[in-house]
Amino acid sequence: MCGIVGYVGKKNATPFLLDGLHALEYRGYDSAGLYVAGKGAVKRAGKVAALTAAVPSDFYGTAGIAHTRWATHGAPTETNAHPHTDEGGSVWLVHNGIIENYAELAAELHAGGATFKTETDSEVLAALVGKEVRAGQTLEDAVACALSRVRGTYGLAVMSVTEPEKIVVARLGSPLLIGVAHGARFVASDATPLLPHTREVVYLEDGDLAVLTPDAHVVHRLDGGTATRASAHLDWSVEAAEKNGQEHFMLKEMLEIPETIERALAGRLGKDGTVTLGGVKDMRAPLRGARRIVLTGCGSAAYSAQIGATLIERFAGIPCEVVLASELRYRPFLIDPKDTVLIAVSQSGETLDTLEAVREAKRHGVPTLGIVNVVGSTISRETDASIYLHAGPEISVATTKAFIGQATVLALLALSLAETHDQTNDETRAFARELGRSPSLARATLSARDSIATLAQKYANVSGAFFLGRGAETPIAFEGALKLKEVSYIHAEGYPAGEMKHGPIALLDPEFLVVALAPGDALFEKMRSNLQEAAARGCRTIAVTTPEHQEELARLADDVIVIPKTHEALLPFLTVLPLQLFAYEVAKARGCHIDQPRNLAKSVTVE
Ligand code: G6P
Asked: Which residue range(s) make up the domain with 126?
């Protein structure tokens, strides 16, 4: 977790550092700080705004580093905020990741007379680097030497008071990229802070250490030698990373869903329903030979993987299993590399558990495919092939458009696998046609926004909520509940509706809400019964359905949300939209921090 930015050039570093932290705040926002050469450090507990207010107006310097934190070691206090320094104040460092052996390193330094001011693992790293600098090493050699002692993960930016025109950065397990401009070098945890300044970027790889000066960046390998890292061009627009006049990023991103689907389909879904996925060309043979598919991811990505699994099983007839990445890593590895493919689903492409699940699969020779939004992210680079969402940056911590983007790409993959496994038929063709129409169906669904805002007012104070679904709607029940709890802090659970009688039903009372996903699919009648059972217990009820069932469900449920009619397999793409809007509107009614909910971070790069 945590966000890092740095600048070395000819202009004032401070505005870039503060704006950059603001852009990276989704990575962590419990405390923040910056160091500017010739001026020193300012740190504050709380959000970046608190830091901005504390930085004096004459805080001018041409090089600096900054950090927004998501605490792992030590409380989110001003003292524990980065940048950290060594005892003599000779080096300053910002760190994203975890130093696993920090306690033993601290004990060793302590025995040599060192004392520590913070509770963080990162301060130990600053002490190690400082010791080498004071012994006369260059900053890059000092950092390399310190890192040779470290076990754990890091994205790191370090400065020395004796070499003020230099930033040394290093990466192992936490993302970092360099921005290249005339007479300036930038560093950041992701591309968003760089967009207003440069489009030329260099992605660092694990084991890289780079030395940045205003006119150059030299990449070394921590295990020896230099490395050549080609630069890449960013095509995200600055506006895409801003709110476009909406009150919150979450709302802006939900309203972008029709366009997100269009972008995911563009150039891939032909008018005749055929699918072209350029990203999988290196994976053609394993995909053609696949007799089983394991999908993995975390949080919402695991739920979109479930949508994908349902579609692949239905259209391509290949058995699929979805395993949470954090579980897959530690299970006995029983995936046969000869006929199984692992698909890793991740918006950021940096989620540590998902990345480690990919690495575990690779160690066992299993072909790996990434479904990723962030181009150049670690998962996209480490999987054998990747399909990008092209959804643009997603800033709100709670994912919305990327969830649909993932489901869309998985739908394309299901159709593509149906082709390679000779399963194309009228049903797949009908689904492909509807998938082509899905941007306009999503637009129509989102137009119910105002009525959902009214509903949200009515249900903003329920004591808890169940989201019930069956079959293809089960992942949507999970996602609807996750969204509500993430942003509104109402306790919510998703259940396959058939499970409700096995325990959860005991919780139903007049303050409790049940949201039943009951569109016109093959399981409609079963869902209607479950809704009836819930209503009979006197709880509050909302049904999500298609127009043909609106009237009858209006007699059973307190409120009905209607989505457009579409192909049965595409219904989950629409039923999830009112649930996202509902979570957003409830959170707004309750005055929550919608884009940055408490305790969460967008990119979870620790276990
Ligand atoms: C965090 C986010 C979730 C997201 C999950 C996986 O928990 O808050 O919205 O679904 O990480 O992230 P990924 O980037 O791998 O899709």
From this structure: 3-234
Low-confidence residues in the chain, pLDDT < 50: none
Sign, CA dihedral 444-446-451-452, equals positive
Token pair, residue 90, equals 């000779």
> Within a 13 Å sphere around the CA of 447, how many CA atoms are in the beta-carbon half?
8
SS3 at position 20: helix
Distances (CA, A) of 131 to 2, 24, 257: 25, 31, 52
CA of 479 from ligand 1 middle (Å) equals: 12
The tokens of 243 are what? 């709110």
Name the residue among 517, 478, 523, 527 with its Cα closest to residue 306.
478
Number of domains in the chain: 3
3-state secondary structure of 263: helix
Do 413 and 492 fall into the same domain? Answer: no
The answer to whether residues 480 and 387 belong to one domain is no
How high is the pLDDT of residue 602?
82
602 an active-site residue?
Answer: yes
Angle at Cα 581 formed by Cα 489 and Cα 503, nearest 5°?
50
Name, in order, each residue with C-beta under 8 angstroms of 537's C-beta and a sequence gap of 6 or more: 505, 508, 509
CATH number at residue 530: 3.40.50.10490
Q: For the whole model, what pTM was predicted?
A: 0.80
Evaluate whether residue 602 is within a structural domain.
no
CA–CA dist 407, 134 (Å, integer):
54
CA–chain centroid gap for 514, Å, is 28
Residue 19, pLDDT score: 97
Catalytic (active site) residue 39 = no
377 close to ligand 1 (CB < 6 Angstrom): no
What interhelical angle do 426-446 and 257-265 show, nearest 10? 150
Atom of ligand 1 nearest to the CA of 302: 10
Ligand 1 touching residue 351 (CB < 6 A): yes
Identity of the amino acid at 233: H
Residue 412 belongs to some domain of the structure: yes
569 inside domain: yes
